[in-house]
From TrEMBL:
Encoding gene (name): rpsT
Name listed for the protein in its UniProt record: Small ribosomal subunit protein bS20
Keyword set includes Transferase: no
Listed GO CC annotations: ribosome
NCBIfam families associated with the record: S20
Superkingdom of origin organism: Bacteria
Family as reported in the entry's similarity comment: Belongs to the bacterial ribosomal protein bS20 family.
Keywords: Ribonucleoprotein, Ribosomal protein, RNA-binding, rRNA-binding
Main function: Binds directly to 16S ribosomal RNA.
Region spans: Disordered: 1-24
Matching Pfam families: Ribosomal_S20p
InterPro entries in the record: Ribosomal_bS20 (IPR002583), Ribosomal_bS20_sf (IPR036510)
Gene3D superfamilies documented for this protein: Ribosomal protein S20
Length: 87
């Protein structure tokens, strides 16, 4: 256990940040899953709508540092490619 006041504060901050990141990563995965499920159901309209909802969430996660920018670009690209297979 930490003994310094600053170290105790850092522990609290890290825990708070960890919970925020965990929530955002979970939300991100949910949005990606919705796109994949719409594609599996072969519902093009729903898939496009889900993709348009997922892109800003993916980009925001990258800007916050929750995922790497390359990971975000790759995810968007793969999801768009997947949705375009329906058309």
């Amino acid at each position: 256990m930490a003994h310094h006041k600053s170290a105790l504060k850092r522990i609290k901050q890290n825990k708070k940040r960890q919970l925020k990141n965990k929530h955002y990563r979970s939300t991100l995965r949910t949005f990606i899953k919705r796109v994949r499920e719409a594609v599996e159901a072969k519902d093009q309209a729903l898939a496009k709508e889900a993709l348009q909802a997922a892109i800003p969430v993916i980009d925001k996660a990258a800007s916050k540092g929750i995922i790497h920018t390359s990971n975000a670009s790759r995810s968007v690209s793969r999801l768009a490619k997947l949705v375009n297979t329906l058309g």
